[in-house]
## 1
Amino acid sequence: MELAETDKQNYLNLEKGFEGEIKFDVLMENLQQERLILNDLLLEKNTTKFQLDSLHIAQETVYHFEVKNFEGDYYMEKDRFYTYSGKEILNPLHQLRRSETLIHQLLQQLGYSSFQVESYLIFVNPTFTLYQAPKNPSIIFPTQLQRFLLKMNRVPSSNLNYRHTRLGEELLAVHRGDDPYKRLPAYSYEGLRKGFYCDLCYSFKIALKERKLVCMDCGCKEDITHALLRSIQEVKLLFPNLPICTNTMHDWCNMTISKKTILKHLKHYYVPKGYGKWMYFE
Ligand SMILES: [Zn+2]
């Protein structure tokens, strides 16, 4: 469906943030020291929720990383953060400090105050520039990432024991699992566009040729079985309460493929429930 402008912006921001976190995780795979990694912890303090992008429990230190995938030019002025065009955004350093305070309090409360806490604001996008940046060692710019990693690798951490594991478990126990459906814009089955789209470029301009879906925009080919199973997963994700049956899938695929083919796949890959025209698959 066509998203409202604010939803579209929100979606793009989430996607960009997610890409940044993946970039960061890939980078962290180069760490040689032992550590427990907890990603996307959602904690609550005085009814305020805090999302911690990445938390590493090492020998004597808890590292907290706030990861930003900002692109292009930004500037700072009097402790405030702006895009190059002058639009003020939340200062990520404030966010970092607030989260750090919370982590300190939490460790104290759980009986782990002997751990040091180190917080870093990591900018992962190589195109990012911050004018008038403060000389703050908590900020790691893209050009400093490799050196930062080397520095981390020099801090010994090789004897993690039950105490570290228990801390990890206790943090997970206070983690407020987020309900992803709550953040979605409202949608209905009727309001969504039907039909296959390209797995690679998301174009709806698809032709069926010799049991393959061919994208008219990028030329990508997808086996019909793969495409159909992908569509079934979509329906299950978007409408968890909708029974999967031949008619539903025929409609969802915009009648591109025959009911006979759909039924054959459903029988092969899913378990039938019910009888006759009430038959559905799980
Ligand atoms: Zn395509």
Note: The chain has a mean pLDDT of 91.
## 2
Amino acid sequence: MEAQDVEFVSRVVAEGFFYSLEHVVGKSRLGCMGWALRTSRLGTAECFVDKVCVATEYRGRGIGKALVERAETAARERGCTCKISLLFLHLLAYGHEMPQKHVQYSCTLHLLGALVAFARGRITPLRKSGTPGTEPGPLQIRNMEEQDVDFVGRMLVETFSDKFEHAVGKSRMEGAVQQNTKMYGRSKDVWHRYLVAVYEGRPAGVMALKFHGETTEVDFQCGEACSYLGCCGTCGLFWLGAYTENVNIRAGQCYLDHIGVDADFRGKGIGKILLDRADFEARQRECKSIFLWVKQSNRAVRLYERQGYVVTHPFGGCFARCTTGSSEWYNMEKQL
Ligand SMILES: CC(C)(COP(=O)(O)OP(=O)(O)OC[C@H]1O[C@@H](n2cnc3c(N)ncnc32)[C@H](O)[C@@H]1OP(=O)(O)O)[C@@H](O)C(=O)NCCC(=O)NCCS
């Protein structure tokens, strides 16, 4: 959709539907379509087609079908593997499995079909312009508070256990948790950077975002670290920080510093909603892009790709291996 299409889209949508359009796919000015990707509770990627409508004067020429096929292509490109749910199809036709092609598309809003589909939990409404992680439901995302210090301290060590093990040694992992917790407890200046995901009342995940010009760092104290980790462990941790904190964040960029979901809560879509929230926060700060570092072998790369991140360049080398334990990293970035 382009600026020149606003009037047309408003008219066509108003003709056919009662609610507002979130996003329009397709350059054709003959029809329009809103769509969104979501992750189901099982973690399978689905695409939800929001509005398919064709101007009355052009109906019956296969334009609606072409738009829905375009949605299928876009959904596949985004890694959707499951189904496309269409709100507006006749009752028996919704829940179209992507490989099949026999669904009769209809541009008519079928309210009954929509209600039944909602009731069966087959489709989920688009998240409108609200803040991801604040809608009613089991998951809430909020800023870090005093009560989260223990959780954040432990989560960051457990989530990045491979890096921590490399830095401090396997036998000192519990010491690393203690040291991290102490450090976050007194580093109130950085709490605003951390968002905590709470699932059914229990802290389940954490994410940190950093913006251009932010220089405040956690209050790392060598003496304290030594008492928990010994000299070698402290030295390892110091160099790990020296490498991972040396990130150049340009104006208009947001850096996704950490993201982790507790192992008990993985695969429920929490990571995805945290990433949606990261996009939202970055846009609020008028960022044009958001980026992160991830180990090339990390399964999370798939999640980032589904969310629209692309690998801008691989990096690593000897210093990366010495400090983080891996020499193969990706810089991934998403345009907002
Ligand atoms: C990556 C992570 C934050 C995703 O959170 P989540 O709530 O499990 O994510 P969702 O349910 O929204 O999405 C599932 C996707 O998460 C990723 N994922 C799931 N378990 C994972 C794990 N143990 N390690 C890494 N990524 C994982 C996968 O990409 C998965 O998609 P797939 O099933 O197609 O492979 C979470 O799994 C995690 O904390 N992993 C360990 C820490 C980590 O690797 N963080 C990223 C560092 S850059």
Note: The radius of gyration is 23 Å.
